[in-house]
Every structure is written in structure tokens, then in C-alpha cells.
Amino acid sequence: MDWLLHIDQQVFEWINSIDSDALDTIVPHLREKETWIPVYIGLAAWLIWRYRKLGLIVILGAILTTGAADMLSSKVIKPTVERLRPCNDPEMKPDMETRVSCGSGYSFTSSHAANHFALSVFLCLAVARRRKWLATSFILWAASICFAQIFVGVHYPFDILGGAFLGSSIAVCIWLLLRSWLPDIDE
Predict the structure, then answer these.
(1) Helix (H) or strand (E) holding 154
(2) Domain positions in the chain
(3) Percent of the chain whose pLDDT exceeds 70
């Protein structure tokens, strides 16, 4: 197990140590929900315009999926595992670049990763199974937010992978529960 944690720390250090003024300016904003509010509003409007009542079911499913991912990550897993964030870890802190406020919560699983992969995978299943470009866009969006979490110094890569797996799993489960109400919506 120690070798896995060593790999996790090495990958974290590699990503966190990237020296780029452009990334230093842009990446911290990728992880802020306020950055994405216009996208959320536009996506909700598109879903309602395109699918009418079924669009509302997709929106409710997305909210349920994201809420479940957030609750399990924040309220169940993090307090159980109690892994320190890299920016709060006394061994890591001296050698890392902290680009945002660290926060006092725990690190595993990343709630940002869980929430954004939950939303992305749910949307892929609900409206993008046959639109590969749209599914790819959803996944790249979630991945960019996850990269940002490592780059700014608040999560290790395994925190991100755990959150992404959690969120994706919840999305699949909720999609399976709701799919009978969303027949052929992806056409």
C-alpha cells in the first residue's frame, strides 16, 4: 500500500509543480462553481427547449445524482477515511505550490470529482449516448475540474480517481432507475 501512496504523491508533485503563468491564472477558476453557473443555466434551458417535460426529468435526475454524490463523498467517505489534503499535510506542504485557500476538510474522496463526474456521466447516459462529441465534452469538462483540484494543491490524484469512480457509479445507478421514464431521449 505504501508504494501506491508514493505514486499518488509523486503524480501530485508533478502536476502541482507545473510552472505556467497562464495555468496559474485560468485553472483556479475552473474549480469554482460560479464559473460554471452560465453553463448550468444554458444546459438546463437547452434540455427544456429540446426535450420539454423529459428535459425536466433529466434536470431532476442530474440534481439527484449530484446531490447523492456530494452527500456520500462529503458526509460519509471523507469523515470515515480522514485523509489530509496535500495542502494541510505537514510532509507535503513545504514542497508544494498552494494556489487557493486550502480549506479544513478532508481529501478522500474529492467531492468536486464525485459531483462533476456524477453530473457528466448522468448527462452522457441521458442525452449523449449517440452524440459522442457531446459525451466527450461532458467528460473533458469534469476531467478539467479534477485536474484543477490537483494543480491548485487541494487533492491527490487518488482522491480524484476515487471521487470520479464514486460519482460515475452513482450516475449509472440513478440512470438505471430513471431510464424507463426517459425512452429514446438520446435520439
Answers:
(1) none
(2) 26-98+105-181
(3) 97
